[in-house]
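Let us work through a complete example step by step.
Step 1: write down the sequence.
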Amino acid sequence: MISATRGRGIATMGLVMFLLLGAPRAAPAQNSIASDGWAGFAVRTPDDRLDRCILYNRTVEALNLSQFEMLALTRDAAGRAGIMVFYSPRTLTRGSKVAMTLRVDQHEPVAITGEVPSDFHIIAGPLEPRLVAALREAKTINAVTQGHMIRFAVSGVGEALDALTECVRENGTQ
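Step 2: predict the structure and record it as tokens.
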């Protein structure tokens, strides 16, 4: 028997994955993955192919508490790196494409374009190799879009990117 608290957590995670993928399709199968300080999933398509691997800059427990003001790194089935930035609710206009500027530590800001599948987050990728290289050593990441800035203190980004590579390797062959 599932407790009410655990049941709400499971329901919340299902809703998060639906919102993250922004698509009205059947719920994808997931396999959890982790890297020190990062937690996430291998997300599969309805026909059981790897869609992407995602690691969030928080634990699954923290993710269950709030899906806002967080960061996620992704690798698609081809192994290309991407990023997801989560703002506060009703910050963005769903369905649009937006320009976002990322500044990693003291590196020059990089302009990227992302899709807005919900009113609070952006999915961008694939990222340029020079941005991925900067992310590997990142301590801070600033993301600005439509006049909204959010700053993340991060650690273990290089290891998280490596864990995503391993996730794609392991889950892409099923």
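Step 3: interpret the result. Residues 1-29 have pLDDT under 50 and may be disordered.
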